Protein backbone atom coordinates (compact mmCIF):
# COMPACT_ATOMS: atom_id res chain seq x y z
CA UNK A 1 0.00 0.00 0.00
CA UNK A 2 1.68 3.16 -1.14
CA UNK A 3 0.50 6.34 0.58
CA UNK A 4 3.17 8.68 -0.71
CA UNK A 5 1.59 11.62 -2.36
CA UNK A 6 3.03 12.82 -5.63
CA UNK A 7 4.96 15.99 -5.25
CA UNK A 8 2.84 19.03 -5.96
CA UNK A 9 4.33 21.75 -8.14
CA UNK A 10 4.97 24.87 -6.13
CA UNK A 11 2.85 27.88 -7.09
CA UNK A 12 4.36 30.51 -9.26
CA UNK A 13 5.71 33.12 -6.89
CA UNK A 14 5.68 36.87 -7.55
CA UNK A 15 8.95 38.14 -8.94
CA UNK A 16 11.59 39.11 -6.43
CA UNK A 17 12.66 42.68 -5.92
CA UNK A 18 15.21 43.73 -8.48
CA UNK A 19 13.90 41.22 -11.03
CA UNK A 20 13.15 42.67 -14.44
CA UNK A 21 9.63 41.33 -14.09
CA UNK A 22 9.09 43.06 -10.74
CA UNK A 23 7.20 46.06 -12.10
CA UNK A 24 4.36 46.50 -12.30
CA UNK A 25 3.05 44.11 -9.61
CA UNK A 26 -0.60 43.80 -8.71
CA UNK A 27 -0.92 43.07 -4.96
CA UNK A 28 -4.32 41.52 -5.59
CA UNK A 29 -2.66 38.38 -6.96
CA UNK A 30 -0.67 37.80 -3.76
CA UNK A 31 -3.59 36.29 -1.79
CA UNK A 32 -4.02 33.71 -4.54
CA UNK A 33 -0.31 32.85 -4.44
CA UNK A 34 -0.40 32.52 -0.64
CA UNK A 35 -3.46 30.28 -0.64
CA UNK A 36 -1.93 28.04 -3.27
CA UNK A 37 1.36 27.80 -1.37
CA UNK A 38 -0.34 26.90 1.91
CA UNK A 39 -2.61 24.18 0.53
CA UNK A 40 -0.73 22.56 -2.32
CA UNK A 41 1.88 20.63 -0.31
CA UNK A 42 2.65 19.14 3.09
CA UNK A 43 3.58 21.27 6.11
CA UNK A 44 7.36 21.87 5.81
CA UNK A 45 7.34 22.77 2.08
CA UNK A 46 4.19 24.87 2.54
CA UNK A 47 5.77 26.79 5.41
CA UNK A 48 8.87 27.56 3.33
CA UNK A 49 6.75 28.67 0.37
CA UNK A 50 4.59 30.97 2.49
CA UNK A 51 7.67 32.49 4.16
CA UNK A 52 9.24 33.12 0.74
CA UNK A 53 6.07 34.82 -0.51
CA UNK A 54 5.97 36.89 2.66
CA UNK A 55 9.49 38.13 1.99
CA UNK A 56 8.67 38.87 -1.64
CA UNK A 57 5.51 40.74 -0.62
CA UNK A 58 7.52 42.90 1.79
CA UNK A 59 10.12 43.75 -0.86
CA UNK A 60 7.45 44.62 -3.41
CA UNK A 61 5.49 46.79 -0.99
CA UNK A 62 2.36 44.64 -1.09
CA UNK A 63 2.75 43.83 2.62
CA UNK A 64 1.57 45.10 4.97
CA UNK A 65 -0.03 47.89 2.93
CA UNK A 66 -2.56 45.59 1.24
CA UNK A 67 -5.12 44.45 3.81
CA UNK A 68 -6.43 41.56 1.66
CA UNK A 69 -2.87 40.33 1.17
CA UNK A 70 -2.17 40.60 4.91
CA UNK A 71 -5.32 38.66 5.73
CA UNK A 72 -4.31 36.00 3.22
CA UNK A 73 -0.86 35.85 4.82
CA UNK A 74 -2.43 35.19 8.25
CA UNK A 75 -4.54 32.41 6.78
CA UNK A 76 -1.64 30.92 4.83
CA UNK A 77 0.64 30.77 7.87
CA UNK A 78 -2.17 29.14 9.84
CA UNK A 79 -2.78 26.47 7.17
CA UNK A 80 0.96 25.85 6.94
CA UNK A 81 1.09 25.10 10.67
CA UNK A 82 2.85 28.33 11.67
CA UNK A 83 0.38 29.91 14.09
CA UNK A 84 2.98 32.18 15.81
CA UNK A 85 3.83 33.69 12.42
CA UNK A 86 0.13 34.16 11.69
CA UNK A 87 -0.34 35.98 15.00
CA UNK A 88 2.69 38.19 14.34
CA UNK A 89 1.31 39.10 10.91
CA UNK A 90 -2.00 40.05 12.54
CA UNK A 91 -0.29 42.13 15.22
CA UNK A 92 1.39 44.27 12.53
CA UNK A 93 -1.96 45.43 11.12
CA UNK A 94 -2.61 49.03 12.16
CA UNK A 95 -6.33 48.87 11.37
CA UNK A 96 -7.49 45.25 11.15
CA UNK A 97 -10.83 44.74 9.44
CA UNK A 98 -13.66 42.38 10.26
CA UNK A 99 -12.11 39.99 7.75
CA UNK A 100 -8.79 40.26 9.62
CA UNK A 101 -10.42 39.31 12.91
CA UNK A 102 -12.38 36.50 11.26
CA UNK A 103 -9.14 35.12 9.83
CA UNK A 104 -7.15 35.24 13.06
CA UNK A 105 -10.01 33.84 15.15
CA UNK A 106 -10.31 30.96 12.68
CA UNK A 107 -6.56 30.39 12.90
CA UNK A 108 -6.65 30.18 16.70
CA UNK A 109 -9.61 27.80 16.62
CA UNK A 110 -7.94 25.62 13.98
CA UNK A 111 -4.92 25.23 16.25
CA UNK A 112 -6.98 24.28 19.30
CA UNK A 113 -6.93 27.67 21.03
CA UNK A 114 -10.57 28.83 20.91
CA UNK A 115 -10.37 30.38 24.39
CA UNK A 116 -7.69 32.79 23.12
CA UNK A 117 -9.88 33.59 20.13
CA UNK A 118 -12.78 34.56 22.39
CA UNK A 119 -10.47 36.65 24.59
CA UNK A 120 -8.99 38.42 21.56
CA UNK A 121 -12.43 39.37 20.30
CA UNK A 122 -13.48 40.58 23.76
CA UNK A 123 -10.39 42.78 24.02
CA UNK A 124 -10.99 44.23 20.56
CA UNK A 125 -14.63 44.95 21.36
CA UNK A 126 -13.69 46.73 24.59
CA UNK A 127 -11.01 48.93 23.02
CA UNK A 128 -11.37 52.46 21.73
CA UNK A 129 -13.03 52.43 18.32
CA UNK A 130 -14.62 49.08 19.10
CA UNK A 131 -15.48 46.59 16.39
CA UNK A 132 -18.75 46.59 14.51
CA UNK A 133 -18.69 42.87 13.64
CA UNK A 134 -20.40 41.62 10.52
CA UNK A 135 -22.31 38.34 10.14
CA UNK A 136 -19.24 36.35 9.09
CA UNK A 137 -17.20 37.48 12.10
CA UNK A 138 -20.09 36.74 14.46
CA UNK A 139 -20.45 33.28 12.94
CA UNK A 140 -16.75 32.62 13.53
CA UNK A 141 -17.01 33.94 17.09
CA UNK A 142 -19.97 31.67 17.89
CA UNK A 143 -18.03 28.67 16.58
CA UNK A 144 -15.07 29.59 18.78
CA UNK A 145 -17.39 30.02 21.78
CA UNK A 146 -18.87 26.59 21.18
CA UNK A 147 -15.42 24.98 21.12
CA UNK A 148 -14.37 26.93 24.21
CA UNK A 149 -17.62 26.13 26.08
CA UNK A 150 -18.19 29.88 26.41
CA UNK A 151 -21.98 30.07 26.26
CA UNK A 152 -22.59 33.62 27.48
CA UNK A 153 -20.31 35.36 24.91
CA UNK A 154 -22.05 33.35 22.18
CA UNK A 155 -25.44 34.47 23.48
CA UNK A 156 -24.17 38.05 23.43
CA UNK A 157 -23.05 37.64 19.82
CA UNK A 158 -26.49 36.29 18.96
CA UNK A 159 -28.18 39.27 20.60
CA UNK A 160 -25.86 41.73 18.84
CA UNK A 161 -26.55 40.16 15.46
CA UNK A 162 -30.32 40.24 15.94
CA UNK A 163 -30.17 43.90 16.99
CA UNK A 164 -27.69 45.28 14.47
CA UNK A 165 -27.75 43.14 11.32
CA UNK A 166 -30.32 42.19 8.74
CA UNK A 167 -31.97 39.00 9.96
CA UNK A 168 -31.66 37.11 6.69
CA UNK A 169 -27.95 37.85 6.27
CA UNK A 170 -27.19 37.20 9.93
CA UNK A 171 -28.90 33.82 10.16
CA UNK A 172 -27.61 32.74 6.75
CA UNK A 173 -24.06 33.16 8.06
CA UNK A 174 -24.25 32.58 11.81
CA UNK A 175 -27.31 30.32 11.89
CA UNK A 176 -25.47 26.99 11.52
CA UNK A 177 -23.00 27.87 14.28
CA UNK A 178 -25.84 28.98 16.59
CA UNK A 179 -27.81 25.79 15.97
CA UNK A 180 -24.75 23.69 16.81
CA UNK A 181 -24.14 25.78 19.93
CA UNK A 182 -27.66 25.51 21.31
CA UNK A 183 -28.02 21.84 20.42
CA UNK A 184 -24.69 21.15 22.10
CA UNK A 185 -26.03 22.68 25.31
CA UNK A 186 -29.23 20.68 25.05
CA UNK A 187 -31.31 23.78 24.33
CA UNK A 188 -33.45 22.15 21.67
CA UNK A 189 -36.06 24.91 21.66
CA UNK A 190 -33.48 27.61 20.98
CA UNK A 191 -31.85 25.50 18.26
CA UNK A 192 -35.20 24.97 16.55
CA UNK A 193 -36.02 28.68 16.83
CA UNK A 194 -32.80 29.62 15.03
CA UNK A 195 -33.36 26.84 12.51
CA UNK A 196 -36.84 28.21 11.81
CA UNK A 197 -35.32 31.55 10.80
CA UNK A 198 -32.94 29.97 8.32
CA UNK A 199 -33.68 29.02 4.72
CA UNK A 200 -35.61 25.74 4.94
CA UNK A 201 -34.61 24.86 1.38
CA UNK A 202 -30.90 25.25 2.09
CA UNK A 203 -29.21 21.95 2.86
CA UNK A 204 -26.65 23.80 5.01
CA UNK A 205 -29.43 24.68 7.46
CA UNK A 206 -30.49 21.06 7.76
CA UNK A 207 -26.91 19.86 8.07
CA UNK A 208 -26.31 22.20 11.01
CA UNK A 209 -29.43 20.96 12.78
CA UNK A 210 -28.66 17.27 12.19
CA UNK A 211 -25.00 17.71 13.14
CA UNK A 212 -25.87 19.73 16.23
CA UNK A 213 -28.19 17.03 17.54
CA UNK A 214 -25.71 14.26 16.70
CA UNK A 215 -22.80 15.99 18.44
CA UNK A 216 -24.97 16.50 21.52
CA UNK A 217 -25.75 12.78 21.66
CA UNK A 218 -29.37 13.36 20.66
CA UNK A 219 -29.37 10.64 18.03
CA UNK A 220 -33.14 10.27 17.86
CA UNK A 221 -33.65 13.99 17.19
CA UNK A 222 -30.92 13.90 14.54
CA UNK A 223 -32.70 11.09 12.70
CA UNK A 224 -36.10 12.80 12.96
CA UNK A 225 -34.55 15.91 11.45
CA UNK A 226 -32.87 13.88 8.72
CA UNK A 227 -36.14 12.15 7.76
CA UNK A 228 -37.98 15.47 7.81
CA UNK A 229 -35.39 16.96 5.47
CA UNK A 230 -35.87 14.12 3.02
CA UNK A 231 -39.67 14.29 3.26
CA UNK A 232 -39.53 17.97 2.30
CA UNK A 233 -37.58 17.13 -0.81
CA UNK A 234 -34.31 18.74 0.29
CA UNK A 235 -31.50 16.76 -1.28
CA UNK A 236 -28.70 15.89 1.08
CA UNK A 237 -25.05 16.09 0.21
CA UNK A 238 -21.83 14.67 1.56
CA UNK A 239 -21.95 16.92 4.61
CA UNK A 240 -25.42 15.60 5.38
CA UNK A 241 -23.95 12.12 5.42
CA UNK A 242 -21.11 13.23 7.69
CA UNK A 243 -23.59 14.85 10.07
CA UNK A 244 -26.06 11.98 10.22
CA UNK A 245 -23.37 9.30 10.49
CA UNK A 246 -22.64 10.64 13.95
CA UNK A 247 -26.13 9.48 14.99
CA UNK A 248 -26.17 6.11 13.24
CA UNK A 249 -26.42 2.62 14.59
CA UNK A 250 -24.97 -0.13 12.40
CA UNK A 251 -28.10 -0.74 10.33
CA UNK A 252 -28.84 2.90 9.59
CA UNK A 253 -25.14 3.54 9.02
CA UNK A 254 -25.03 0.91 6.32
CA UNK A 255 -28.07 2.56 4.72
CA UNK A 256 -26.29 5.90 4.64
CA UNK A 257 -23.17 4.18 3.32
CA UNK A 258 -25.17 2.63 0.50
CA UNK A 259 -27.30 5.62 -0.50
CA UNK A 260 -25.76 9.00 0.27
CA UNK A 261 -22.06 8.23 -0.14
CA UNK A 262 -22.45 8.18 -3.91
CA UNK A 263 -23.52 11.84 -3.78
CA UNK A 264 -20.60 13.87 -2.48
CA UNK A 265 -21.59 17.41 -3.39
CA UNK A 266 -20.33 20.00 -0.93
CA UNK A 267 -18.04 17.57 0.88
CA UNK A 268 -14.76 16.01 -0.09
CA UNK A 269 -14.57 12.25 -0.40
CA UNK A 270 -11.93 11.97 2.28
CA UNK A 271 -14.12 13.72 4.89
CA UNK A 272 -16.99 11.39 4.06
CA UNK A 273 -14.88 8.26 4.29
CA UNK A 274 -13.37 9.41 7.57
CA UNK A 275 -16.90 9.82 8.96
CA UNK A 276 -17.80 6.32 7.79
CA UNK A 277 -14.74 4.90 9.51
CA UNK A 278 -15.67 6.72 12.71
CA UNK A 279 -19.22 5.37 12.57
CA UNK A 280 -18.09 1.77 12.09
CA UNK A 281 -15.57 2.18 14.90
CA UNK A 282 -18.21 3.58 17.25
CA UNK A 283 -20.51 0.57 16.73
CA UNK A 284 -17.61 -1.88 17.10
CA UNK A 285 -17.27 -2.97 13.46
CA UNK A 286 -13.51 -2.58 13.20
CA UNK A 287 -13.27 -4.76 10.08
CA UNK A 288 -15.68 -2.47 8.20
CA UNK A 289 -13.76 0.59 9.37
CA UNK A 290 -10.53 -0.95 8.17
CA UNK A 291 -12.06 -1.81 4.80
CA UNK A 292 -13.04 1.83 4.30
CA UNK A 293 -9.57 2.89 5.44
CA UNK A 294 -7.90 0.63 2.87
CA UNK A 295 -10.11 2.01 0.08
CA UNK A 296 -8.96 5.61 0.68
CA UNK A 297 -6.36 6.38 -1.96
CA UNK A 298 -4.96 9.54 -0.40
CA UNK A 299 -5.30 9.31 3.34
CA UNK A 300 -4.99 12.46 5.44
CA UNK A 301 -3.93 12.68 9.08
CA UNK A 302 -7.57 12.32 10.19
CA UNK A 303 -7.86 9.00 8.32
CA UNK A 304 -4.87 7.56 10.15
CA UNK A 305 -6.00 8.91 13.51
CA UNK A 306 -9.53 7.54 13.13
CA UNK A 307 -8.24 4.07 12.25
CA UNK A 308 -5.68 4.07 15.05
CA UNK A 309 -8.43 5.22 17.41
CA UNK A 310 -10.73 2.45 16.13
CA UNK A 311 -8.14 -0.17 17.01
CA UNK A 312 -7.52 1.50 20.39
CA UNK A 313 -11.18 1.73 21.44
CA UNK A 314 -11.99 -1.81 20.42
CA UNK A 315 -9.11 -3.56 22.17
CA UNK A 316 -6.65 -4.02 19.30
CA UNK A 317 -3.73 -2.25 20.94
CA UNK A 318 -0.92 -4.00 19.08
CA UNK A 319 -2.56 -3.32 15.73
CA UNK A 320 -2.82 0.36 16.66
CA UNK A 321 0.92 0.45 17.34
CA UNK A 322 1.64 -1.33 14.06
CA UNK A 323 -0.45 1.22 12.19
CA UNK A 324 1.55 4.07 13.71
CA UNK A 325 4.72 2.50 12.28
CA UNK A 326 3.04 2.16 8.87
CA UNK A 327 1.91 5.78 9.10
CA UNK A 328 5.47 6.96 9.66
CA UNK A 329 6.75 4.77 6.82
CA UNK A 330 4.21 6.50 4.55
CA UNK A 331 5.75 9.89 5.42
CA UNK A 332 2.73 11.02 7.44
CA UNK A 333 3.76 12.96 10.56
CA UNK A 334 1.83 11.93 13.68
CA UNK A 335 0.13 14.72 15.61
CA UNK A 336 -1.22 15.19 19.12
CA UNK A 337 -4.40 13.23 18.36
CA UNK A 338 -2.29 10.30 17.18
CA UNK A 339 -0.35 10.59 20.44
CA UNK A 340 -3.55 10.37 22.50
CA UNK A 341 -4.97 7.47 20.46
CA UNK A 342 -1.77 5.44 20.88
CA UNK A 343 -1.70 5.97 24.64
CA UNK A 344 -5.39 5.02 24.85
CA UNK A 345 -4.64 1.81 22.95
CA UNK A 346 -1.92 0.92 25.44
CA UNK A 347 -4.18 1.74 28.39
CA UNK A 348 -7.09 -0.33 27.10
CA UNK A 349 -4.89 -3.32 26.40
CA UNK A 350 -2.52 -3.14 29.35
CA UNK A 351 0.55 -2.53 27.19
CA UNK A 352 2.46 -0.73 29.91
CA UNK A 353 6.06 -0.85 28.67
CA UNK A 354 4.93 -0.29 25.10
CA UNK A 355 2.98 2.78 26.22
CA UNK A 356 6.02 4.22 27.98
CA UNK A 357 8.12 3.63 24.87
CA UNK A 358 5.51 5.33 22.69
CA UNK A 359 5.33 8.30 25.06
CA UNK A 360 9.08 8.77 24.86
CA UNK A 361 9.01 8.31 21.09
CA UNK A 362 6.35 10.94 20.48
CA UNK A 363 8.15 13.45 22.69
CA UNK A 364 11.77 12.88 21.62
CA UNK A 365 11.39 11.75 17.99
CA UNK A 366 8.26 13.58 16.84
CA UNK A 367 8.84 16.63 19.03
CA UNK A 368 5.35 16.77 20.52
CA UNK A 369 4.73 18.45 23.88
CA UNK A 370 2.54 16.16 25.98
CA UNK A 371 -0.83 17.49 27.08
CA UNK A 372 -2.44 17.01 30.47
CA UNK A 373 -4.70 14.33 28.97
CA UNK A 374 -1.73 12.39 27.62
CA UNK A 375 0.10 12.59 30.94
CA UNK A 376 -3.03 11.35 32.69
CA UNK A 377 -3.04 8.38 30.29
CA UNK A 378 0.49 7.44 31.37
CA UNK A 379 -0.42 7.76 35.05
CA UNK A 380 -3.46 5.56 34.43
CA UNK A 381 -1.34 3.06 32.51
CA UNK A 382 1.19 2.70 35.33
CA UNK A 383 -1.22 2.85 38.24
CA UNK A 384 -3.63 0.28 36.79
CA UNK A 385 -0.68 -2.08 36.50
CA UNK A 386 0.10 -1.51 40.17
CA UNK A 387 3.30 0.40 39.41
CA UNK A 388 2.48 3.24 41.81
CA UNK A 389 6.04 4.35 42.53
CA UNK A 390 6.68 4.88 38.82
CA UNK A 391 3.33 6.63 38.45
CA UNK A 392 4.14 9.08 41.22
CA UNK A 393 7.63 9.67 39.83
CA UNK A 394 6.09 10.40 36.42
CA UNK A 395 3.71 12.93 38.02
CA UNK A 396 6.74 14.68 39.48
CA UNK A 397 8.36 14.91 36.03
CA UNK A 398 5.30 16.26 34.21
CA UNK A 399 5.97 19.47 32.23
CA UNK A 400 2.93 21.09 33.85
CA UNK A 401 1.36 21.05 37.28
CA UNK A 402 -0.87 17.94 37.55
CA UNK A 403 -4.56 18.72 37.70
CA UNK A 404 -7.47 16.97 39.41
CA UNK A 405 -7.85 14.52 36.52
CA UNK A 406 -4.33 13.18 37.08
CA UNK A 407 -4.78 12.81 40.83
CA UNK A 408 -8.26 11.38 40.34
CA UNK A 409 -6.79 8.76 38.03
CA UNK A 410 -4.28 7.79 40.72
CA UNK A 411 -7.00 7.67 43.37
CA UNK A 412 -9.20 5.43 41.22
CA UNK A 413 -6.35 2.99 40.54
CA UNK A 414 -5.43 2.98 44.23
CA UNK A 415 -8.97 1.90 45.06
CA UNK A 416 -8.79 -0.87 42.49
CA UNK A 417 -5.55 -2.18 44.01
CA UNK A 418 -6.56 -1.43 47.64
CA UNK A 419 -3.44 0.73 48.00
CA UNK A 420 -4.08 3.06 50.93
CA UNK A 421 -0.69 4.79 50.84
CA UNK A 422 -0.97 6.18 47.33
CA UNK A 423 -4.71 6.75 47.69
CA UNK A 424 -3.93 9.08 50.60
CA UNK A 425 -1.38 11.02 48.51
CA UNK A 426 -3.85 11.45 45.66
CA UNK A 427 -6.67 12.39 48.03
CA UNK A 428 -4.66 15.07 49.80
CA UNK A 429 -3.89 16.73 46.48
CA UNK A 430 -7.50 16.48 45.33
CA UNK A 431 -8.76 18.12 48.53
CA UNK A 432 -6.53 21.11 47.78
CA UNK A 433 -7.62 21.36 44.14
CA UNK A 434 -11.34 20.69 44.37
CA UNK A 435 -12.44 20.77 48.03
CA UNK A 436 -16.07 20.94 46.98
CA UNK A 437 -16.05 17.54 45.21
CA UNK A 438 -17.81 15.16 47.57
CA UNK A 439 -17.02 12.18 45.36
CA UNK A 440 -13.34 12.27 46.34
CA UNK A 441 -14.25 12.09 50.03
CA UNK A 442 -16.63 9.19 49.45
CA UNK A 443 -14.01 7.28 47.45
CA UNK A 444 -11.32 7.80 50.10
CA UNK A 445 -13.71 6.79 52.88
CA UNK A 446 -14.56 3.59 51.01
CA UNK A 447 -10.86 2.81 50.54
CA UNK A 448 -10.25 3.19 54.28
CA UNK A 449 -13.30 1.04 55.10
CA UNK A 450 -12.19 -1.69 52.68
CA UNK A 451 -8.79 -1.73 54.39
CA UNK A 452 -10.42 -2.10 57.81
CA UNK A 453 -9.44 1.44 58.86
CA UNK A 454 -12.86 2.26 60.26
CA UNK A 455 -11.89 5.37 62.25
CA UNK A 456 -10.19 6.94 59.22
CA UNK A 457 -13.24 6.15 57.11
CA UNK A 458 -15.49 7.88 59.65
CA UNK A 459 -13.15 10.87 59.84
CA UNK A 460 -13.30 11.42 56.07
CA UNK A 461 -17.08 11.01 56.10
CA UNK A 462 -17.43 13.68 58.77
CA UNK A 463 -15.32 16.02 56.62
CA UNK A 464 -18.13 15.96 54.06
CA UNK A 465 -20.62 17.34 56.56
CA UNK A 466 -18.14 19.79 58.05
CA UNK A 467 -17.52 21.54 54.73
CA UNK A 468 -21.13 21.13 53.61
CA UNK A 469 -20.37 18.82 50.71
CA UNK A 470 -23.54 16.79 50.99
CA UNK A 471 -25.24 16.31 47.63
CA UNK A 472 -27.82 19.11 47.19
CA UNK A 473 -31.45 18.25 46.64
CA UNK A 474 -32.78 18.45 43.11
CA UNK A 475 -34.16 21.74 41.83
CA UNK A 476 -36.04 22.72 38.71
CA UNK A 477 -36.00 25.97 36.84
CA UNK A 478 -37.23 27.51 33.63
CA UNK A 479 -34.78 29.41 31.47
CA UNK A 480 -35.98 31.71 28.73
CA UNK A 481 -33.78 31.61 25.65
UniProtKB/TrEMBL annotation:
This is Pentatricopeptide repeat-containing protein. Signal peptide: none annotated. Keywords: Repeat, Transit peptide. GO terms for biological process: RNA modification. InterPro entries: E_motif, PPR_At4g14850-like_plant, PPR_rpt, TPR-like_helical_dom_sf. It holds the Pfam family E_motif. PPR repeats lie at residues 202-236, 269-299, 300-334, 335-370. Residues 1-21 are annotated as: Disordered. Coiled coil: none annotated. GO terms for molecular function: RNA binding. It comes from Paspalum notatum var. saurae.
Amino acid sequence: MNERHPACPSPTAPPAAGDSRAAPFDPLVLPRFLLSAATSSSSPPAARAVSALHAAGLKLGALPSSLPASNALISAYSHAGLLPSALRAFSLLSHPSNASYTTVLSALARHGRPHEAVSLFAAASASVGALAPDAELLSCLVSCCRRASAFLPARAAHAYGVKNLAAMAFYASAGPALVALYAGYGKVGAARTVFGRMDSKDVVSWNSMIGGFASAGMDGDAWVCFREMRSRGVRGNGRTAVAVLGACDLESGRQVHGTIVSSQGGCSKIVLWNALMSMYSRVGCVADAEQVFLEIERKDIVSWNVMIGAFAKNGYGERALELVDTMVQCSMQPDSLTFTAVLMACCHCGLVDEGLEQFQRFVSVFGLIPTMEQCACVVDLLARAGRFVEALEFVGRMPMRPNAVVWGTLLSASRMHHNVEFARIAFENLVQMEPENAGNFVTMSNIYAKAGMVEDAKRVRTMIDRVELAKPSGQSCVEVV
